[in-house]
Please model this.
Amino acid sequence: MGVVVAVEGLDGAGKATLVAALADAARARGATVGAFAFPRYDADVHAALAGEALHGGHGDLRGSIHAMAVLFALDRAGAAVPLQAAREEHDLVLVDRYVASNAAYGAARCGEDVDGPFVAWVHALEIGRLGVPAPDAHVLVRVPGELAAQRVRDRAAADPTRAPDGYEADAALQARCAAVYDQLVERSWLAPWAVVGTDGDRASLTRTAESWVSDWLGTGSSGDIGPGSSVRSDTIET
Model:
C-alpha cells in the first residue's frame, strides 16, 4: 500500500514544481509514483462547471460558496476509485490540491477560521459521505500572498489561455485563505502537515524533497512528518 501526499497552497504558490521534485526524489530511490491534480477541469464535468463559473459562467453559481465546494468535492469523489487503485499500485501518490483546498478556500470565503462550521462540513461531505480517500500527509507550499498573485499575473501574461479566475484575482481572498491554511497545519487537519517556504536554492529544495520522500517511504531515520515540521526551501515557481 502506497503513501498519498497532498500538496497544498495558494494559486501561484509553486505546487507543481514541488510535486515534480518529490516525484524525482522518489524515482531516484527506485520507487513508483502516481500523480493526480485537482480540479480536473478537462476530465470531470463537475470540475468543468466550477471552472466555467470561476470565469463568469452559469449565472450566480460562483456566488454560492457551498455549491462551488460541492462541485469540487464531486470531482474528487469521481477520482476516488482510480486514486485508491494508484495507492495500491504505487509506492507514492502525489496529489496537487486535495480536500484541504476546499476547506481553506471555502472557509476563507465564509470569513471563518478552521474551527468554523465550513471546515467541518467539508470533512463530513468529502471524507464521510463521498468516500474521498484521506491523504497520509500534506505539504503546504507557503508563500506571501503578493508573490503568489504576481506569479498568477506573470503566468497569464505568458499564456493568454490561463487568465486568472475569480479566486486567483481576489487578493483579499488569497490572504484569508493563507491564514486558514496555517491553521490547518497547526491542527494537523486530516493528516500531518509539513511546510516548505520560498527562500533558499534549488539544491535545498532537492534535499528537502529527498528527506521527505525518505520519511514517507519508511527509509529514513527522522520519523513521520509532524505538524511542527517546517522546512525552508528555494523560490519555487509554477
